[in-house]
Design a protein that fits this description.
Elements (H helix, E strand, L loop, with lengths): L3 H28 L4 E5 L2 E4 H17 L4 E4 L4 E2 L7 E8 L1 H6 L5 E7 L4 E8 L4 E6 L4 E3 L2 E2 L12 E4 L7 H14 L2 E3 L4 H9 L5 E7 L1 H13 L3 E2 L7 H4 L1 E6 L4 H10 L5
Parallel strand pairs: 3-5, 11-12, 11-13
Antiparallel strand pairs: 1-2, 3-4, 5-6, 6-7, 7-8, 8-9, 9-10, 13-15, 14-15
Helix pairs in contact: 1-2, 5-6
């Protein structure tokens, strides 16, 4: 288990590295000189994803050689004993990045396998850095952030994540129930930024039927440290296999848990 000083050192490293990686991502976004492919339907991949992940992995290996590493694009390193594990999405929102839409981010998290310990999410288009560590609060560019105090669904906005790991009927059912509740459903294409926005009070909730660890662990820390509710993502081997996820302001938790159950999501 990391002591507070060790955690602070890693948070500082993650913050600086997310900015460095984000600067690289933004340069490549502007020059548009990269190849675009698909890993599956609507699952975009660019050569920049791997380029940024290699940078992050190399930097972390030098600074924390005993730590493990899991990256979306396949970079991996097994940790030793109870050493913590970095979980990284080099570009969360790759479809937006590939299409030229400036809504994407670098997401860096650290976990001990049972709990997410810290998160840094950097939006290079807006030059916004969201950071949090367990027990120390959540911040946007160094200023404290909190979830909204919304208590009524008809005043809430709910972002819904989607991919083909869950049936289209589930996604459509979620959107239908949200609309019928009076809340505003939306989808912007970056789970990590969606979670950061919940933490910052820009939206009220994020719900996804199945999401991977690199997309959400950093954001989960942010929401929890900003006073929000986050379902137990790391249960049932969520670190390697993914899980459903609900993260929200406390005042709409009960309504959204009921909604999730109605469409068959087990949180």
């Amino acid at each position: 288990m990391l002591n507070p000083r060790e955690l602070n050192v890693r948070l500082a490293a993650a913050s600086a590295l997310s900015r460095e990686a984000g600067a690289l991502t933004m340069r490549r976004f502007r020059d548009r000189g990269f190849k675009i492919g698909l890993k599956g339907p609507q699952d975009f991949l660019t050569e920049v994803d791997s380029e940024v992940e290699r940078l992050i992995a190399a930097r972390l290996h030098v600074q924390f050689p005993g730590d493990g590493f899991i990256g979306e694009e396949g970079a991996g390193r097994v940790s030793h004993g109870d050493a913590p594990i970095w979980v990284v999405d080099p570009i969360d929102g790759t479809a937006n990045f590939a299409r030229g839409a400036p809504h994407f981010c670098v997401s860096i998290a650290l976990t001990d396998g049972k709990k997410a310990l810290l998160g840094a999410i950097y939006d290079p288009a807006l030059d916004e850095l969201f950071t949090a560590s367990a027990g120390s609060g959540a911040f946007l560019d160094g200023a404290p952030i909190r979830v909204r105090d919304t208590t009524q669904m008809h005043a809430a906005s709910v972002e819904v994540g989607w991919n083909l790991r869950s049936p289209p009927e589930t996604f459509l059912g979620i959107m239908k129930h949200i609309a019928e509740s009076g809340a505003a459903p939306m989808r912007c294409g970056s789970g990590a930024l969606a979670l950061a926005y919940v933490a910052a009070g820009r939206s009220d909730a994020f719900l996804e039927p199945m999401i991977n660890a690199w997309d959400c662990l950093a954001g989960n820390v942010l929401v929890e440290e900003a006073g929000g509710y986050v379902s137990d993502f790391l249960a049932r081997d969520g670190l390697t296999k993914g899980n459903p996820l609900l993260a929200c302001a406390p005042g709409v938790r009960a309504a959204l848990l009921e909604l999730a159950a109605a469409v068959g999501i087990v949180l």
